[in-house]
Amino acid sequence: MQATLLSVLGLALLGALHAQDSIPIQADFQQDKLTGRWYSIGLASNSNWFKEKRHLMKMCTTIISTTTDGNLEVTSTYPKGDQCVTRNSLYTKMEQPGRFSYTSPRWGSKHDIRVVETNYEEYALVATQISKSTGPSTMVLLYSRNKELSPERLERFTQFSREQGLTDDEILILPQTGEAGGTGR
Q1: In the structure, what pLDDT confidence band is assigned to residue 178 with cuts at 50, 70 and 90?
Q2: CA 144 – CA 153 distance, rounded (Å)
Q3: Tens digit of each residue's pLDDT (9 = 90 or more) over 58-93
Q4: pLDDT tens, 20-35?
């Protein structure tokens, strides 16, 4: 019985490690080109908070800057009710360029963040594997330098999110502030 349980746990761990390894990272990642203002255009997640808050979400503005020690300071401002809320996060660079870690001070969750692809001037596709006590989850973000992106980029975001095991009801193109509702993809 114990050997069977260990085998199942071993296979589950191997599957989780394989899933993380299957997430690509931007070739020749250039961190300095990722800095500046971005708009969150798309968000996909299988986490419980996303399912609960999906209908309230809107596009937010994110400023990415490099710290003196080479990590990323990520400041996101988003509408919440009738006010704007700002959240600061420090993404610690990992050995592989384009890969970062973050631990939420509020929830204690650990985030493995990967810049999947970007052309730095138009869009960035970012995938995050989140580990927390209630179980793992996946989040995919689509950033844009402008408030709109081409249908091809939106479709690439949707396609990549599905490749990560996310369903259509877990994928959201975020409405701009002031717009009513959002369109799922």
Answers
A1: low
A2: 10
A3: 899 999 999 999 999 999 998 777 778 899 999 999
A4: 457 999 999 999 999 9
d(CA 84, CA 58): 11
β-pair type (36-45, 137-144): antiparallel
To which residue do tokens 């690509």 refer? 24
Query: What is the model's pTM?
Result: 0.83
CA distance 46 to 139: 7
What's the confidence (pLDDT) of residue 21?
59
Domains of the chain: 25-169 (2.40.128.20)
Contact partners, residue 62, CB within 8 Å, separation at least 6: 37, 38, 39, 40, 74, 75, 76, 77, 143
Q: How far apart are the first and last CA of the chain?
A: 44
The encoded tokens of residue 81 equal 């009710």
Cα 86 to the center of its chain, rounded Å: 17
Question: Which tokens is 114 given?
Answer: 């990967």
Q: What letter does residue 167 receive in the DSSP assignment?
A: -
Residue 138, classed as helix, strand or coil, is: strand
Q: Which residue numbers are catalytic?
A: 60
Whole-number Cα distances in Å, 154 to 22, 30, 41, 87, 179: 21, 23, 8, 25, 18
